[in-house]
């Protein structure tokens, strides 16, 4: 009878430990997924900043070229 009780206690402890291990693994997966999402958000934000910078430079260059061409054309016709 004593051995049966000890075996039952061992099985119960094993099941509890297995449940704790499953819970710990699930939490680790959730944390890894959260870190991955955070990295994706940061990366998308940085790409957006770079794209905005390129757009700004392209617009500024266009304005400068148009102004120079406009004044060169005006100078050509005026004189």
Helix content: over 70%
Poorly predicted ranges: none
Element string (H = helix, E = strand)? H
Number of strands: 0
Question: What distinguishing features does this structure have?
Answer:
79 residues; mainly alpha; 0% strand
Topology at a glance:
Layout: H1 2-78
Describe this structure in words.
With 79 residues, this protein is an all-alpha fold. 97% of the residues lie in helices and 0% in strands. The termini are far apart.
Short description:
The chain is mainly α and 79 residues long. Helices cover 97% and strands 0% of the residues.
């Amino acid at each position: 009878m004593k051995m049966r009780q000890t075996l039952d206690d061992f099985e119960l402890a094993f099941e509890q430990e297995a449940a704790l291990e499953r819970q710990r693994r699930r939490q680790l997966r959730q944390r890894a997924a959260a870190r991955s999402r955070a990295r994706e958000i940061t990366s998308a934000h940085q790409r957006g900043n770079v794209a905005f910078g390129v757009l700004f430079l392209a617009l500024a260059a266009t304005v400068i070229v148009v102004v120079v061409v406009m004044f060169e054309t005006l100078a050509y016709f005026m004189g």
